[in-house]
Predict the structure.
Amino acid sequence: MKKILLFLLLIFTGVSFTNAQGIFDDTIHTATTFGSVNSPGAEGVQNVIDQNSSTKFLDFNAFDGIGFEVDLLGVSKTAIAMEFVTANDAPERDPTNYEIFGSNDGTNYTSVATGSIPCVATRFFSRTFSFANTNAYTFYRVNFTGTCGTSSINQIADVQLFESIGDSPVITCPSNITMNNTTGQCDTVINYNVTANDTEDGALTPTVTSGLASGASFPVGTTEVFMSVTDSDNNTSSCSFTVTVVDAENPMAGCPANIMQTAASFGDTTAVVNYTLTPTDNCVLINPLANFTPLTNINGKAYYLSNNSFTPQNAFNDAIAQGGFVGTIRNDADNTLITEAVNTVGGAGDLLIGYNDVDTEGSFVWQSGDTSTYNNWNPGEPNNAGNEDYTVSQSSGGWNDVTNVSTYRYLLEIDYTPTQTAGLASGSDFPIGTTTNTFTITDLAGNSVMCSFDVTVDANLSVEENAFSNSIKLSPNPTKDIITINSATNISIDSVTILDLNGRTLQTITNIGQLADGKTIDISNLVSGMYFMKLQDSESRVAVKRVVKN
């Protein structure tokens, strides 16, 4: 068996695992709390040194961390590594930093080591963090701070300190990898190489602890890969790296061709025009939205995570103001997709969803009115403790009922449509002439393209009416105040009616008479914009002209 300590052979992050004999012995040592600790009876501080992953130390007062002290009963030990094991519950409760102190009188403590703990989703995951220390102590204090999410709770399964950890194998991970997506796909194949060697065992084969194996298709976004290797002495070393797949592909606009349409009836100044955009993307189409982080698009429903926190009722009101609802989760696949999307963008801890029993106690419904009966309650939930009428989804995907007291970030659900930046919506009354419609289509990665097309509406005229209309000229057009009407055929006009774009009459002038010398119309009283001028002669022939007022 190897006896030499070579902790410098650990990976650069200090992550490793070992089965060596630890300093803390639950059979003779007692762990006491340090700092402000509020633990349930079955999840007390002694569990942290019992080397049993199925028990844990939990502290509801995470604001000052979760800490403990151990008296080694007068025996001096020189700690040079700490093993940390994640507990069974929600990952957002895991601490993110540690500090180890030593003392020989139980009162005056010296800082021995500090470091950070990378957040992982894997439960009961053991890592060992090595550090330089040559001083022996008879008391040790370990304090953990921070949380991997917005939780107010800290938890740990086990902590152990070691004087020696043997000659650990050396494992080498590649540097972080970044690649673009494969064209037309929301992923790409990533190949990587991880090597491992041991002083006695020689070359070893690393295994994937979490993440994806080399040669797998990695999704767009960042995937953390943890690799580990164990030697014949049961010393385990680990390393990690990230694989980031960038969605570098623009959406397809699906823009319709230019549309030409004739007004339905004679004298109409508008026509109803319908059109359809068919945008597509290799990943997810979703519009940017102020104060919200885009998550995903499911069957035409865009889902966002609010950047701000609200009480449940205020969140329900805010969602309506945004034009949507607090999100509906319709099945297990959607629950998994949304949970992963929220965790990928940094997590929300407890995420408010639209399931509630505000109206009838015990009868949960979705704010959207959706008839979905799917739920994913945690064991023992909902329990309505303290009149809990609302629902949150945890980072694990499980649901709990909550009151209207605390604040949460919420899941927003809105019907997806491309963002229109100019023109009129499909089904609108389009005026005679040409209207340019433009849309911006954006994907989850922020790639965007523009769609632009023209809708041209012609007046409904007979051959005679068309000749009559073509003989009439307006000048100048655009104009600031006066417009002159002329006709090469010296026709006589009975009346001129000025209408707005919605066909409403603004002004009517009668007894215009012959146009040989031109007739002037004063429109200085109109605000700047586009108008229609309807001219009618004694034979009831009508011409409609567009006028632009500067």
